[in-house]
Amino acid sequence: MRRQPGRDRGGQTGQTGQTGPSVLIVEDDDETRAALSRELTARGYRIAEAPDGRTALERWQLRRPDIVLLDLGLPDMEGLQIVRRMRSEAGTPIVILSGRYEEREKVEALDRGADDYVTKPFGVEELDARLRVALRHAVGPTGDQAGRLVAGPLVLDAVRHEVRVSSRPVDLTPREFELLRVLLENAGRLVTKGRLLRAVWGTAYQDEASYVYVHVSQLRRKLAAADPEGRLRDLIATEPGVGYRVSAPSDDSKP
User: Fold this and answer.
1) 165 in helix, strand or coil?
2) What is the DSSP letter of 72?
């Protein structure tokens, strides 16, 4: 990895106060993984690390990251197996990081669901740009070109990993943020509790419907506190026994 001059590299993995997107770095080379962690932390990302495929999947199940940076050449399994597993459960963006140069491997990784492919050696600025592009694209057709999901006065910014209501910041936990993102991405459509559990918590929590109820309640409370005018009162509607539905984003209401 080529370092860029003139940047602060003092951040540490897990640094308190970081509020940017969370990245799961899956890389078996200790030196490369440490350098990636240091550089991305300095740019505001929250970092989790995995030196092999088994650890990556365990941490993926424990807490869904906003984006995955994945080396294909892992000691215990092929990176393409991880792409297939993650893509079967969620739409989290995956950026492949590898020293392999054959075109067929790049095409196969993209065909299996990876969002981008960065070949070693690479510049940190380029990697940062690729991550931001993948985060913007992850919001799907309901998002704008800046990677934001808008519903009236509410704006969820996937790249900055922040939520605002009428420019007022809303302090959400990672689970609450991901829950709101999935609901907004599917604005106007019913999202079942099972789908929310798979996307936000993973298949290991498939029978824990109470998790969704508790987190939706907390999410509603925080949004209401940031919205004294009550414009978001009916944003998240409950479909009894099935799931939740959010109102379609409004184009004529400015955040």
Assistant:
1) strand
2) S
DSSP characters for 79-104? HHHHHHHHHHH----EEEEES---HH
**23 vs 171: CA distance, rounded Å:** 19
Q: Are 132 and 138 in contact (CB under 8 A)?
A: no
Tokens of 114: 């990876």
Q: Which residue matches tokens 């906003």?
A: 66
Q: How many CA atoms lie within 13 A of 210 on its CB side?
A: 0
* Beta-ladder partners of 239: 243
Model confidence pLDDT, tens digit, residues 86-124? 888 888 899 998 776 567 777 888 888 899 988 888 889
Q: Is 244 exposed, middle or buried (0-12, 13-18, 19+ CB in 10 A)?
A: buried
